[in-house]
């Protein structure tokens, strides 16, 4: 057997080769070329060698071969023989790891049975395991784990011998990887084995690890976290109620620990035990647990993690004691006894509801009440009468308010137990315990909201929230009662004398009610709100009926589909009325903006919906917009500001249509704008429109030209696959570019520029690209005005987005223009367009957007800018810095970081420019840099701090607007904690001294930033930090 | 939990504490009024005002907002009590009515007085609270202000003695050298918003 010698030769130096040798041997055994017995015999001489490593390696060879064998390879006769052979080797502890690994492989054989398992286990129990290294122990534990999952009955049959023996075997284990196995083995033993006589021994083995304080080493190859160990150990501790007598006293003791982590672990373990030990066990423990855990809640400020965990522990005990109960618990049940003590103590504290411990007392009651319907019933029945009495005797409003907050928590518990209207799960069998007090509660809360002084803001807000929650409890208030609440809320929301926060809260509650009782909103709220809308702008002014607030409120309530349908109908009717009264553009715009707002808020609407909205909204609206332009009448809808909203509506609705419908819309809009044939977008006077409406003519009126936004919107919303219904895309494009050189208004200009970009990005083919190139080249070579500059920037953007190389060429020309005497400054600002987000030109609107396009722009532009900067004159430098700041503003900071060393000198100069925008952008880049990658700034700390201090404190310098001062202060605040203290300490005095100037800033918000920044610097190097 | 002197003090509700009335610029703008036409923002125009800068519309330095009692209150009311994780405002240790500001633009110096009220009359932490208030105000106010922090008369068994200590500059200075004391003060200031 040369293989054995070869394997042993390679075992350490070349494990891969060794494995291959073992694999080959295994293949030979499987093909019966070699007998396993022969292999064992061939090891004979090595197994008696005096050198222990030789013996271990020999067994290692056998184990490795076994590991490569399939489960069917060994016969019914071979398995016991090999088992016996290897088990005997366990006495020679030198090869323990290899033997254990081999045995683990054996357990996977088909003919491995309980007899073999017992034999191995018996032999294992004789091993002195703790003296072996962790990896060896790991192999043994893996073997035990394998036996536990494959031959559990055999181990059980070994009885006490196994249980006590195992305790000796694994005692004192410390390695985290081994503990993970040990804990899962122990859990099986605790749950399934007969351990009653050894409870104490088992407890000692497991509990000695609590609390886990393990911290994984930084290069831990196994990725085991403290949390993994905690979870497994917790499962062990919680697995048998026999531990209860020892676990709880010890956990209670550990609750006194000063470590937050340990306390959290204790509370979570208590909860896990409570949930698993069962009501009989827990009934004996519940009172001492309550006495111990309550302090964690009562003495906290109420919101911290520890208090929350303690609340969950108290709840878990109630959950456990509720098992099997389906009625209000009778007084002699463990649950009633547990809750009685809680109720007694908490009620006492709630007698003074304004004091600190009242809030946590209320939280305890409310949280425990969510444990089960019986617990909820018991707590509410035994506290509510007393609480209502405290309320009526309170005398002062602040006290009533504090109590109401406690009641509001009870309502939340009722929602948790009984569900809200939108829940579909089954309700508990016990009647809602609040039912008994329904009228009283409704009365008190209604009175508090509607019958108290309007100045009592927080009191009424609390009452309103409470009413909202009462409405939300499933099948609790009747529809007429919820209707009353809706009326109250309407009244408040429409009352302009109410404070904003009160009106907002009313709206929010109405919004919530609209989710489960939308009919009430439509029947009660809509008529009330619509009645507040004036019929004309004149009426709005004369009768003091501002429409914006009402429209906004309506928008907030109309997110549910049925409500939106009603809103749409009513608002379109209102628009009709307003237009016929001869209105200016503001009111119609606001009405359309309301519809737009709701559509923007609504989650993905179905296509079916959208088609209906399209038909109801778009053609009628466009008809009303266009027809007056050709046939006379009020052209108010063709005002730029209204058309802007109309365009967005058209885009958002068209976007949701399917391809077929989009194609139809595209054809119609081209008939209207380009082909001058009757279009079905126009529902009346289509003939006159077709013969006279010429928005894309050079001499079109300003209004007609302005309506181009409709065409642009539809192109923006449409899929690329839908072809443009024009003969030649390049000629169409050329025409638009021509128009864009003489726009008639800002709105018209933007529509045309977007149109150019959309056509180039979405609809030019490779064949067209030559034409695009020619048209751009013509502009570039003769550039003389701002309009041409704008067109070039939009062309570049459209090309860069789709990853077109020619785009980079245009862009680099634009960078060169930064030194142009007249156009340089404008070009610098234009770089905001190149990387900015456009509402119409983006991936969501089917534009081609290449990944990493921002990176590409950055890496092509920035080096050239830096290069130009070195040679630039003083007039060009600001342009370069402005362009740079516009690029940096839109590029993810991860991209910037790599180039920062070369950029930083430029950034520092940018802060000194007298342009507020550039300053602010630069400072915010710096701030992000410091927060995310402070080391880059390390060598420039002095320069950065000096300049920031100047920007923050020198109010005389032009460009240091309050906003710039604030961002400079925020940026200074980012330093401490991000850079090592000793780098900053030299500047501490200067910073603190200089910032005194900012403390006297005329603007309050600046002073606030200065205070916060000073505190941060002041604490620098303090012993407490 | 160590023994607390006053484990269950009365707490004011946050929403009942005095606050500055929101000005037009701090109020969240409504969705409809803030819907600017898309063509209104022209990045090429020199006057373009990106969001970064425009977040306060009163971006005008000629309107001076002077330091008032509410501002002082806001500086100290979110400080934390040394005994509870609750703010001095909620515990009514500091009250807006007990703060005065004298800041005459004609004068070179101003004066701020703040009287605080310990939660119980024998609170041994009153000195720490007083010291904390002094430190906070010294840090947060321009040096032209003289700061007078005192315990409100009749609210503490030793208020005279205490006020003498707080008024004594040298004793305050030496207290600031004390690391334990400054540790406590640092904790109080940590929670400031």
UniProtKB/TrEMBL annotation, chain A:
Pfam families: MMS19_C, MMS19_N. The keyword Disulfide bond does not apply. GO terms for biological process: DNA repair; iron-sulfur cluster assembly; protein maturation. Residues 550-976 form the MMS19 C-terminal domain. It is found in: Nucleus. Residues 40-299 form the MMS19 N-terminal domain. One of its GO terms (cellular component) is nucleus. Its main location: nucleus. Keywords: DNA damage, DNA repair, Nucleus, Repeat. HEAT repeats lie at residues 39-77. Belongs to the MET18/MMS19 family. Key component of the cytosolic iron-sulfur protein assembly (CIA) complex, a multiprotein complex that mediates the incorporation of iron-sulfur cluster into apoproteins specifically involved in DNA metabolism and genomic integrity. In the CIA complex, MMS19 acts as an adapter between early-acting CIA components and a subset of cellular target iron-sulfur proteins. This is MMS19 nucleotide excision repair protein. It comes from Sphaerosporella brunnea.
Automatic annotation (TrEMBL), chain B:
GO terms for biological process: protein maturation. It comes from the Eukaryota. InterPro entries: FSCA_dom_sf, MIP18. Coiled coil: none annotated. Residues 1-13, 22-36 have a biased composition (Polar residues). Residues 1-61 are annotated as: Disordered. Belongs to the MIP18 family. This is Uncharacterized protein. It comes from Sphaerosporella brunnea.
